[in-house]
Specification:
This protein is 24% helix and 48% strand. It has 3 helices and 6 strands; from the N terminus they run ααββαββββ. The chain starts with 6 loop residues before the first helix and ends with a strand.
Length: 123
C-alpha cells in the first residue's frame, strides 16, 4: 500500500526541495532524492543524485524562486509535477523563467524525486 500525495503535499515537497537545493542542505536532499535520481538541467546536462549532493547550489544566493502554473497528475505510486519557476533578483524582477517537470515516486516508505527536467523560457 502507498500513500496518496495531496496537491498541497506536492507543492510543499517541491518548495522544500527548492529551498534545500539553494541552501545546499545535503541532509534534506539525501532524503528527497532517490538513489537513481537524474536531472536534465536547462542546459541539457545530466545531474545525478551524487552530482547534486557533491556540488553547491545551482541558484546563486540572493535570488528567490516563485512557482506557478502547477499541474499535478497521479499514477498509482507516481506523481508527475509540471510548473513554472520564475527566478527573481533582490529587486523582485525576473532574472529567468524555467518550465519544469518532476517525477516523484513512493519508495522505501516515503516520497522521493526520481527525475527532473528544466527548460528555459525565452524572455
Amino acid at each position: 500500500m502507498h500513500r496518496i500525495m495531496t496537491d498541497s503535499a506536492v507543492v510543499s515537497f517541491e518548495t522544500t526541495w527548492a529551498t534545500a537545493a539553494v541552501a545546499h542542505d545535503t541532509a534534506t536532499l539525501r532524503c528527497m532524492l532517490a538513489n537513481n535520481f537524474v536531472d536534465t538541467n536547462w542546459q541539457g546536462m545530466l545531474r545525478t543524485r551524487r552530482d547534486v549532493l557533491a556540488n553547491g547550489p545551482i541558484t546563486p544566493p540572493g535570488l528567490t524562486q516563485h512557482f506557478s502554473e502547477w499541474r499535478i497528475d497521479r499514477f498509482d505510486n507516481t506523481v508527475l509535477v509540471r510548473g513554472l519557476n520564475t527566478i527573481a533578483g533582490a529587486d523582485n524582477k525576473p532574472v529567468s523563467t524555467l518550465r519544469f517537470t518532476d517525477v516523484l515516486r513512493y519508495l522505501d516508505g516515503r516520497w522521493q524525486a526520481t527525475a527532473a527536467q528544466e527548460t528555459m523560457v525565452r524572455q
